[in-house]
Specification:
Elements (H helix, E strand, L loop, with lengths): L23 H4 L3 H4 L1 H21 L11 H12 L3 H14 L2 H14 L20 H38 L4 E6 L2 E7 H20 L4 E2 L9 H6 L5 H11 L3 E2 L10 H30 L2 E3 L18 H24 L9 H6 L2 H20 L1 E3 L1 H9 L6 H13 L8 H9 L6 H9 L5 H8 L10 H4 L6
Parallel strand pairs: 3-4
Antiparallel strand pairs: 1-2, 5-6
Enzyme class: lyase
Pfam families: ASL_C, Lyase_1
Keywords: Lyase, Purine biosynthesis
């Protein structure tokens, strides 16, 4: 066999997974928050802010007060963190074989390079003061996930829900033959069915938007042991709480070495639930396309099938289904794994949390696909009208209900309405004449008989159109 080129040696490096390869453009915004480089940048950020917090609040006796220029210099280390800094950290870590220690040494280099006369040259031992690695990591992950959700995922998911809601309003009065158990059922409107999905999506988004992001800074086993021995005069829980809240997080006062990750499990469960509702939307739209309710607008130059040129495949919705399933599998694993840590610490969470990015990436990719798919849909009103006109038996429900109401009002001859409609309609296709003839022979009051005779499957949509107004932003 002829030897092949080793693709692992090709430069630039070839992505192993599709999120960093084929689908990179759709998920690229998450790289700024959930990549390994983003994790290291956030670690530098937390270390910088902890140093500033200790110095500016006089927590450690003898620490110099930092000037505004000193603080700006430190925060600029975070702001300018890029390719060169990523490479430098990688080089340090090859020696330390410890990622957080590498960040500590990286920052100390920056302090040593501070301008002549700056107090920063004298505060090296405040870097990582009394911290365990997990003090830095838990805060970094909380900031990363918060920003990924609030700045990238949530805006995209909200835009999707808004687009579904807008389509629901547009189609609120478009009659649609409903299918329950796959069988013709009480008509509805296409807009009302989309409104149900938009309402479900928005409810999950409200939960996600209100989720908390917890953090802690309390040492190797959550006891402030090193803190209290080094500086016994400080109110360390108060210092910790103020710092965590300064970062914009919710302080967790009781932890082991690690922050317990329960907030992550809660968030991931909520995102997974949103995914599953969106999966339902994708399967429903796919089915509407299969029925011809929706037609797909062809894209110039695009190929639907390699051999069948007439086809316009619903690939956006199928792609979304697959990515939502992968995302949910990862989110479920994250949620179930992260809530357990043996005794005071084990490292299972370290590898697990490095898959937060792919979990959100597959969800974001699915959102992108559904949005693009929805924009390529058109309704076929003629088909909808034809389906409704072929199923007059669905009017058995309102006729039966009118007979019940008439019976309660004292009209005679209204006995056994369900059974009589069942005998008329079950397993049969009725015409308009069949239904109207049946109604005429019931002996209903004239106004009721007239109302039922005027009813058609297309007009029997109840309050469906009006219900769309219950959609909440």
């Amino acid at each position: 066999m002829t030897a092949r080129v080793t693709l692992a040696d090709v430069t630039p490096a070839i992505a192993l997974g599709p999120l960093d390869g084929r689908y990179r453009a759709a998920v690229a915004p998450l790289v700024d928050h959930l990549s390994e480089a983003a994790l290291n940048r956030e670690r530098v950020h937390v270390e910088v802010e902890w140093l500033v917090h200790l110095a500016q609040h006089g927590v450690v006796p003898g620490a110099p007060t930092l000037t505004d220029d000193d603080v700006s210099y430190l925060r600029d280390v975070v702001a300018t963190f890029g390719a060169d800094e990523i490479a430098e950290l990688g080089e340090i870590e090859r020696t330390t074989v410890h990622d957080v220690k590498a960040v500590e040494y990286f920052l100390k280099r920056r302090l040593a390079d501070a301008p002549e006369g700056s107090a920063l040259r004298d505060v090296g031992e405040l870097v990582h003061f009394a911290c365990t690695s997990e003090d830095i990591n838990n805060l970094s992950y909380a900031l990363m996930v918060r920003d990924a959700v609030q700045r990238v995922w949530l805006p995209a998911a909200t835009a999707l829900a808004d687009e579904v809601a807008a389509l629901a309003v547009e189609l609120k009065d478009q009659p649609l033959l409903a299918l329950t158990h796959g069988q013709p059922a009480t008509p509805t409107t296409l807009g009302k069915e989309l409104a149900v999905l938009a309402h479900r999506l928005r409810r999950q988004l409200r939960r996600i938007a209100s989720d908390e992001y917890l953090g802690k800074l309390n040492g190797a086993t959550g006891t402030y042991g090193a803190h209290a021995v080094a500086v016994p005069g400080a109110d360390w829980p108060a210092v910790s709480k103020a710092f965590v809240e300064h970062l914009g997080l919710t302080w967790n006062p009781l932890t082991t070495q690690i922050e317990s990750h329960d907030w992550q499990a809660e968030l991931y469960a909520d995102v997974a639930r949103f995914n599953r509702v969106l999966h339902n939307l994708a399967t429903d739209v796919w089915t509407y396309i299969s029925r011809g309710v929706f037609t797909q607008i062809p894209v110039a130059g695009a190929t639907g099938s390699s051999t069948m040129p007439h086809k316009v495949n619903p690939i956006r919705f199928e792609n979304a289904e697959a990515n939502l399933e992968i995302s949910c599998a990862l989110l479920d694993t994250l949620a179930s794994t992260l809530v357990t840590s043996r005794l005071q610490r084990d490292l299972t969470d370290s590898t697990t949390q490095r898959n937060i990015g792919p979990a959100f990436g597959h969800s974001l990719l699915a959102i992108d696909n559904v949005r693009r798919g929805l924009r390529g849909l058109a309704v076929d009103p003629a088909l909808l009208a034809r389906e409704l006109d072929e199923n007059w038996e669905v009017l058995g429900e309102p006729v039966q209900s009118a007979m019940r109401a008439a019976s309660v009002a004292g009209v005679t001859g209204m006995e056994n309405p369900y059974e009589r409609l069942k005998e008329l309609t079950r397993g049969r296709r009725l015409t308009a004449d069949d239904m109207r003839e049946f109604i005429a022979g019931l002996g209903l009051p004239d106004d009721v008989a007239s109302r039922l005779a005027a009813l058609t499957p297309a007009s029997y949509t109840g309050l469906a159109g009006a219900l769309v107004s219950y959609l909440e932003d």
